[in-house]
Structure formats: structure tokens, C-alpha cells
Design goal:
With about 325 residues, this protein is an alpha/beta fold. It contains 13 helices and seven strands. Helix 6 packs across helix 13. The protein is elongated.
Length: about 325
């Protein structure tokens, strides 16, 4: 197109005939034009680069501008691109961890593994009492002194509630918030799995369970019989004072006055009959919560020590 325009322009200018004829012949034969864009001829007829060539432009660039541009690029990478890539990598890692956790949760223990686990050889002690009676505090000390594995039903339920892939999270949250008893199938499943997580241990303290007679029977039918019940007897006024004080720092959703009152009603209506039932079987060790923390644990330690000694003696006699 450029050559055609050049030909048309040349023919319209006032030139002699010969140059016009030569230009037409060159165009018709397809040969390149004598003069190309961006080129001029020197005095000897040779072509020389135009002053607008790339190299001549590059020579005129300020080195400081190059340094500034490089600094901007590096800063952009460090401030935007690199953090974004790290964020994406972290998201992928979290997704992998969630998938692994979900697969582990779904797998759990097989029926064959549950059937083969020696639950009957384990010594299980239920730790019962009203909310705020000192079950957790004294259980922690018994762990240190006697080597128990402490399983808190409440802690297991709260952990399951917070687990991202839990199918029971919202259900558990509702029951805890309302001070109600979580369905025993969920609680017993968590306790059973927690016991199987400690195959090396023979001593288990199960704190805050069973909450009613249905749970007690279901646990003994599907897991094992409880050898003893450690019952902390505590006045409701004392428990209320402890719970309100604990609620200032615990962050628990059920450590508020409304939930506490509901838990008290549940304890009196459902949990207290469990203690009465086990008392008929001579399995209850009662500890009064009146007195200092050290005084209460002194009695607790003595009763547990006597029980374990009697248990060991019965095992020796059986041999």
C-alpha cells in the first residue's frame, strides 16, 4: 500500500518522463523502492541508520530512570505478588489439612477395632457432681498422683463442636447453650474413641458423665462397666458463685446466669438420680466440697487411694 501511494505521489509531481517510467517499471516488477522509510542516503550513496533507530533512543535513557523502574518492580513483587503467593500457598495447605482431618474423622475406628479393644480390662471411674463442684480441678490432681487418663465429656463435646468438619457441631452448640443433655450416642462415641486413643492406659477418669440413667446404661452396654463413682457434693449457692467467677475468664457459652440455672435444673432432675442408683450398688465415693481446695483434695486423694489399693488386692486374690 505504501509503494502504491509513493508511485501515485511521484506521478503527480512535476518530474521528467524518464524517472516516472523507471518508477512504474520498478513497481510493476515487484522490486523494492529505491528509498525506504526511515533511511537516507549518504554522500557516497550508501544507506545509514535513521536518527530515530532503537539504539539511538536507548542511548538517551537516563540510568536513574532504569534504577527507579527496577526499584518499583522489586517493591511491587515484595509488597503485592510475594504476599499473595504465600497467602495462596497457605490456603492450599489448610485445604489439604482439612481434607486429611475429614478423612480421619470419617474413618474413625472400625467395628472390628472397637470389638477387639479390651474395654473390660480398663478401670473406669465416673466423676460426678453439680456444675462448678470441682470435678475438673480434682481430676487434674488425680491424674498427676495416680496416672489416670482424664476424659472430660464437656471438653470432648466442645472440641467436637469447634471441629470444622463435624456433622454434630451445631447440634452440640444448641444443647450446651440451652443447658440440655447432648444425645448419648454422640457423647458415648466420643468417650469410646478417646479411650481407644490411649491403649496403654488402664485407669480412666470420665468427668461429667453419665448425665442421666439412659446414658449410664448405654455406656455400660456398649463400652464397659464403671468400677466406681466419685461424687462431689456441693451446695448450689457455692457452685453458682464459682461458675459466675469462672465465667469472667473461661469464655464458655454456658457460664452465664441463664445457662447456669438451666444446668442446675438438669442436674437435679436427671443427673442426681444417677448418683442415687450407683449408691444402691455401693459404688459411690462421696466428697464434701466444704472447705479449702486443699482440704477437699486431701479427702479425694484418700478415697481414691483406698479404692485403688482394694482393686489391686482383688486382682491379686483372683490370681
Amino acid at each position: 500500500m505504501f509503494r502504491l501511494q509513493q508511485l501515485r505521489s511521484a506521478l503527480l509531481t512535476k518530474q521528467s518522463v524518464a524517472p516516472r517510467v523507471a518508477l512504474v517499471r520498478n513497481y510493476a516488477s515487484g522490486r523494492p523502492n529505491q528509498l525506504r522509510m526511515g533511511q537516507t542516503r549518504g554522500g557516497n550513496g550508501s544507506k545509514k541508520p535513521s536518527s530515530n533507530s532503537f539504539l539511538s533512543r536507548f542511548d538517551r535513557i537516563n540510568p536513574l530512570a532504569l534504577v527507579g523502574a527496577a526499584t518499583i518492580l522489586i517493591s511491587g513483587y515484595m509488597l503485592i505478588i510475594k504476599p499473595y503467593m504465600e497467602w495462596r500457598s497457605e490456603l492450599k495447605q489448610r485445604a489439604v489439612e482439612r481434607q486429611q482431618e475429614e478423612e480421619k474423622a470419617q474413618a474413625g475406628y472400625t467395628e472390628e477395632q472397637i470389638a477387639q479393644f479390651p474395654f473390660g480390662k480398663k478401670t473406669v471411674v465416673f466423676v460426678l457432681g453439680g456444675p462448678g463442684s470441682g470435678k475438673g480441678t480434682n481430676s487434674s490432681k488425680l491424674v498427676e498422683d495416680f496416672g489416670f487418663v482424664h476424659l472430660s465429656a464437656g471438653d470432648l463435646l466442645r472440641a467436637e463442636q469447634k471441629r470444622p468438619v463435624s456433622q454434630y457441631g451445631e447440634l452440640i452448640a444448641h444443647y450446651i447453650r440451652e443447658g440440655l443433655i447432648v444425645p448419648h450416642e454422640i457423647t458415648i462415641g466420643l468417650l469410646r474413641n478417646a479411650m481407644m486413643d490411649h491403649p496403654e492406659s488402664d485407669l480412666f477418669l470420665i468427668d461429667g458423665f453419665p448425665r442421666n440413667l439412659v446414658q449410664a446404661k448405654a455406656f455400660e452396654d456398649s463400652v464397659c462397666m464403671a468400677k466406681k463413682v466419685l461424687y462431689f457434693e456441693c451446695p448450689e449457692a457455692t457452685m453458682l458463685e464459682r461458675l459466675l467467677d469462672r465465667g469472667k475468664t473461661s469464655g464458655r457459652s454456658d457460664d452465664n446466669i441463664e445457662s447456669i440455672k438451666k444446668r442446675f435444673r438438669t442436674y437435679v432432675n436427671d443427673s442426681k438420680p444417677v448418683i442415687d442408683e450407683y449408691a444402691k450398688e455401693g459404688k459411690v465415693m462421696t466428697v464434701s466440697c466444704k472447705g479449702s481446695v486443699d482440704d477437699v483434695y486431701k479427702v479425694t486423694h484418700k478415697q481414691m487411694s483406698d479404692f485403688l489399693q482394694a482393686l489391686e488386692k482383688s486382682k491379686q486374690d483372683a490370681k
